[in-house]
Structures are given as C-alpha cells and as structure tokens.
Amino acid sequence: MTVTHHLRVHRSDEQLPREGQLAWRIAEIASDPVEVDADVVDMIINRVIDNASVAAASLTRAPVSAARQQALDHPVSVNGSGSTVFGCALERRTSPEWAAWANGVAVRELDYHDTFLAAEYSHPGDNIPPILAVAQHVGSDGRALVRGIATGYEIQVDLVKAISLHAHKIDHVAHLGPAAAAGIGTLLGLDVETIYQAVGQALHTTTATRQSRKGEISTWKAHAPAFAGKMAVEAVDRAMRGETSPSPIYEGEDGVVAWMLDGPDASYDVPLPVTGEAKRAILDTYTKEHSAEYQAQAWIDLARKLHNERPALTEPANIESIVIHTSHHTHYVIGSGANDPQKYDPHASRETLDHSIPYIFAVALQDGTWHHVDSYAPERAQREDTVALWHKVTTAEDEEWTRRYHSIDPAEKAFGGRVEIRLTNGETVTDEIAVADAHPLGARPFAREDYIRKFRILAGPVLEPAEIERFLALVQRLPELTAAEVAELSIVAAPGVLATAPAPKGLF
C-alpha cells in the first residue's frame, strides 16, 4: 500500500525533525530489507541488457571515448577491486565513481534506453551504472545488486510522479542523484542515517539548469546523468565517513523547493511505498525501440505506418503542411513551440536533431524506418527533399493530449497525439497514436526476446559473437550471480574496435 509524503517548505525556526523530511523517508525506504518480486527481477534483467545494448552502440562515439579515457586515466581506488568500463577488458578496472561516469555516458549517449514521464521526465536506467560500479568494487553479489537497482528505480519514479523540475528549468537529473545514492545505500546495507546524509549531498550537488537540453544541445546532454551518478557514489563515500550534508535539503527555507522549484509556499504529495512493501516502480517504466527522445517514439511508429499506407506523403511537393497536435511537453520541448531555430537547422548537432520532432517525423515518414546512426547522419539531415518536408512540419498543443500525458491512469496516459497533413490537392490526411508500439500498452510491447534482439543488433558490429553470448548468459542469471560473476557484468569490445575511437587528451 503506497502512502503519500506531504512535502512543504519549513522555516528554520520550525525545526522540522529528520523523521519528517523527504530525504529521511527516502533513506528509510532504501534501508528496508524487503525482497524483490520476481516480475521486478525479470524487468531489472531486461534493463541491464537494454543499457548494455545502447552502450555497445556508442562505444566509438567521441563523448563516450572521452569519458572512458577520463575514467581509465584514474587508478583503482583503495578498499576494493575497482569497477569495469564498457568496452574494456574485464581485468581493466578504474575506481567506482569514474566507472559510473564512463558507463553512464555510454548508456545515455544515444538517448536510446528506458524512460518514465509524469510530472517530470526521467531515464531511470541511469541508476544502473553507479549502482553496478559500486557492486563490482565492493564485491556484492547479484541479489544485492538487484535490490539496489530496485531502490534506485523506485525513488526516481516516485519523485518524478510528484515534483516537476522542468517547470523551473531545472534539469531532470536532480531526481537521479538522490535515487542513485539511495540505491547504493540499499546495495551496501547502510543504515538510515548514512543514506539520509548521502541523499542530501547527492541532491545538493546535482541541481543544474535545463540549458543542457535547450537550443544548440551539446555533448553534455549525455554527461549530465553520468555526473549525477558519479556524485551519488561520492556522496555515499563521504556519508560513510560520518560527514553530514545540507539539511533539510528539500524543505529548508533556503533549500531546493524554496529557491529552485515552486517557492516557499509550495507543497507536493510524493507517493512512497510503506515499510515492507515491495519496490515495483520499474514496472511503470518503458524502454525505447528507436534512438530518439521518448516523446518521438510514437510519432516514429505513426510515420512508419503512414509511409507504408500513403507513399505519396513522402514527397514534399505533395504536402502543403503537417501539423502535429500533441501534449504541452512535446510541443514546447521538442516541437516548434520551443522556438528553437536549431530544430529546423540541417547542420544542427545530433543531440539537437534528437530533440526535434519536426525533423524526426519528416525523416521517419520518408524512410519508413529509424536508425540510431543513419537517421542522424549529416548527409541525411541535409538532403534537399528532406529539408523541404521538414520545414512544413509544426506542432500545436492539444489540451486533451496534454491531459492524457499527465493522467495517473496507466490505461489513459499517452505520449502521442493527432497529425493533420494537408495535401496540395486539397485533401487532408489525419491519423493518431496514443503510445509507441513498444510501450506496455502498444501494438508490440517489448518482452525479453525484444531486449535480446535489440542487444544483438546494436552489439553485433562491435562485440565478438562469443562475447555476446557470454554476456547474455550471465545477465539472465542476475539474482543468482556470485560476487566474482557480478565483477564480469560488462561488455568487452572486439579487438581493434576501441582503437577506431577518438583518443582525446586532457589534464589527467
């Protein structure tokens, strides 16, 4: 039975006790020794596979290579065995905070893993790299790792359901820092006081503006969640040494809510599990079939359908206008409502095009498919007929689709909308889609075989066949793994693959 934690700002002279603070409640949940349900374990395995898939596909990309080099240029820290780095030999280790950094960037680089959308946005799979890195370093077994990941998902999803960050232009990774710290606390079996201090520091150090996802989007977009994971590892380390953190971090009169969110009169109701209740929030989340912002998933599927049914729609000469009627978020963040000219720029960065629904819909409509590399290639974005069609696509907010986007009823919650295509011959083509095909309520919900197929497709070009089979055999026994086997829960690139990646030099 879920309970609601009422969160509001308190003056310093009110002396809010720790037991009434959200960070303390998060810590209590993290320290609860409740077991993980079997269906949650299965989904955790799916998401570890999913993370490895998208990490494999990004191994040679410049941001991932830079983060990997930074990690490898640091020695393994003391008091542990160190942690693996995606792509590297299993015996090549670094310290857990730097492994969390490198692997977090690899997972996020292509914007191709799981998502949860409510009051805020999130990619809760970002919890896995820091929790796994610590598990490898300290020698945790598979059961402990599963419990830690379940907590990370639970806390992030619960925060995302209640507290909007983007409304105040705060980046969504501010929910990730506390979640990852809590997950590490569960993994290690830490006491409530220690986890409480770690959660406070993790939140305090991971609040930043949303400029990382606005205008000309930079390579920091992939680094931001990795930074939050790295900060979570460091926050736990500091808390374990007996050090304290800003408190009350959420409720204080100079705290996050009062000055970064809805102000001193704000209040939120955060849904949290009661003591002894299983952590099941991962089952509310969903992954991506396509490498694009989640709000684009359904639109790629609809464009693919229209491509097959109405081939004439792919020719810009036949089109007068394309208007996508959708939710507030899709319109203002990745649509024309953002007023970002970069979203219509054929020379824009991949990160920018990934957040341009006009571009994504136009390319998917013309190609009838979507590819994590080819669909973003400069020659694809700059194709004359694509630019002509792309510039005819606009978005508009539709109140009903906004309402459905924010619905708490899973059967009603939607991330799509309605498209109206006016042809030059006077005809109007309309169609709509509520959720992506891969969504749990979609046309083809993702199951274990889909996660495995995604892994094989993305890992095939960079991993040897034997390595693909080794990883899949290992990860599917996740709750039974020994500490030694958890230490091998990574992917090793085929010989010569990493040599093709950029090797940037820096300070380290």
TrEMBL record:
User: Residues in domain MmgE/PrpD N-terminal?
Assistant: 21-267
Q: What is this enzyme's EC?
A: 4.2.1.79
For this entry, the protein name equals: 2-methylcitrate dehydratase
Q: Which UniProt keywords apply?
A: Lyase
Origin superkingdom: Bacteria
Organism, as annotated: Microbacterium azadirachtae
Q: What class of enzyme is it?
A: lyase
Catalyzed reactions per annotation: (2S,3S)-2-methylcitrate = 2-methyl-cis-aconitate + H2O
